[in-house]
Specification:
May be involved in the trafficking of signaling proteins to the cilia. The chain contains 19 helices and 3 strands. It is mainly α. It has a 3-stranded antiparallel β-sheet with strand order 2-1-3. Helix 5 runs antiparallel to helix 6. It is globular, with a radius of gyration of 26 Å. The structure holds zinc ion (2 copies). One zinc ion (ZN) binds next to helix 16.
Length: about 400
């Protein structure tokens, strides 16, 4: 191991910085098993150091003596945040390549002014289609047909390169293809619809009447995956295998499967992600139904046009769940009392058996019960909507405005 590898593995940030500044080779892989500094970074679990190695020019597709990349090594030891960072890193220089005319081109494929906004989207770890459309929409340079067409072309070229280079990068290829598909949809809406990108956002969010499940979004993401041009890709086949048997409206959603494949995120719980834009760490709940969660009032407003149709239905579902959770809790308590009483009355000769409480058979159940109880604790709040948050006068969005409230930390 080189000194840099040691420093990385022990997560000594200052030492890493010092060594890099003095010319340590970030891509040296003369380690006896072909490990690189980036692989050690992934193993160490330090997000900062992983990022530092990437910025210093660490190659992501180098493999060690057993044919594993740094991302695969990190995933193997459960360092999923490092996997996410490695998989979503895309050096700006690789994009800037397209801002200069190449070969016989008279013009660059990508106008220099688009490189920044496009790079921002390429490196995002939130792949929610609404989030990506919002990123397009917020940048006037990007939100027009000609610019998006150029970006699509560049994304498709990067995708092709990822698949054709010797060390294939299927993750990046699928990500580029997926973003390109979203841009293509943006182009269609900009051309054909009067409400432009707002129309696309609405289509992506529109929920079906019964439960508010966004059918168009699900179908759109499935179609993106299906349209990936390299059918032989292992990752594509994995995605198709996980999604194909799932009925639309059931779990896992195409979005969660795709996110997991690309970012390496596991344990995808809805509780933490914004219903509108998929941003992590959302903590504002609709105060009426308590079943959807948002980053802020803005995200809630965008979603309200469709959520208002199912908010009441979801409220009933939620109340039923709370009731059931309470019942379940009581049942569990009674059972525990009974078990304890039984254990106490057991004779010493039976002690061996009493060492094993009947937990095993309850495992699945109790897991659910715990989750539901947690939820009910989380939502133990006054049932009337909070009216003090805003004083908007718009009658249509009024409920949306007032219906957001911060999730309180559970006391237990
Ligand atoms: Zn949001
Ligand atoms: Zn609601």
């Amino acid at each position: 191991m080189t000194p840099l590898m040691h420093a990385v593995y022990k997560a000594k940030i200052d030492m890493c910085r010092l060594l890099l500044r003095h010319g340590a080779d970030v891509n040296c892989n003369e380690h006896e098993h072909g490990y690189t500094a980036l692989m050690f970074a992934g193993l160490s679990g330090s997000k900062e150091i992983t990022w530092m190695m990437l910025e210093a020019g660490a190659e992501t597709d180098v493999v060690n003596s057993v044919g594993r990349t740094a991302a695969q090594m990190a995933a193997f030891v459960g360092q999923h945040d490092c996997v996410t960072i490695i998989n979503n890193f895309f050096p700006r220089e690789r994009l800037d390549y397209y801002t200069k005319p190449q070969g016989l081109d008279k013009e660059p494929k990508l106008p220099a002014k688009l490189a920044g906004p496009l790079h921002k989207i390429i490196t995002t770890t939130n792949l929610h289609p609404v989030k990506i459309v919002l990123l397009v929409k917020e940048n006037p340079l990007l939100a027009e047909v000609e610019a998006l067409l150029k970006c699509c072309r560049v994304l498709d070229l990067i995708c092709e390169k990822c698949m054709k280079q010797r060390e294939m990068n299927e993750v990046l290829a699928i990500k580029m293809h997926y973003i390109s598909c979203i841009f293509q949809k943006c182009i269609n809406f900009l051309k054909e619809r009067e409400d432009k990108l707002d129309g696309l956002i609405k289509s992506l969010l529109k929920g079906r009447d019964t439960d508010g499940f966004p059918v168009y979004q699900e179908k759109f993401i499935r179609e993106c995956i299906r349209k990936f041009p390299y059918c032989e890709a292992t990752l594509l086949q994995q995605l198709v295998r996980s999604i194909a048997p799932v009925e639309i409206g059931s779990d896992p959603t195409a979005f969660s499967v795709l996110t997991q494949a690309i970012t390496g995120q596991v344990g995808f719980v809805d509780a933490e992600f914004c219903t509108t834009c998929g941003e992590k760490g959302a903590d504002k709940r609709c105060s009426v139904c308590k079943m959807v969660i948002y980053c802020d009032q803005n995200c809630q407003k965008i979603h309200w046009f469709t959520h208002k149709k199912v908010c009441k239905i979801l409220k009933d579902v939620h109340e039923k769940q709370e009731l059931e959770a309470a019942k379940e809790k009581r049942r569990q308590e009674k059972k525990r009392e009974r078990d304890e009483a039984q254990a106490a009355s057991l004779s010493p000769t039976n002690e061996e058996q009493s060492d094993h409480p009947p937990e095993a058979t309850e495992e699945v159940d109790s897991h659910h019960a715990v989750k539901r109880t947690e939820e009910s604790v989380l939502n133990k709040q006054p049932s009337a909507p909070q009216l003090h948050l805003d004083n908007h006068s718009e009658s249509e969005t009024n409920l949306a405005d007032i219906a957001v409230q911060k999730v309180q930390e559970s006391e237990e």
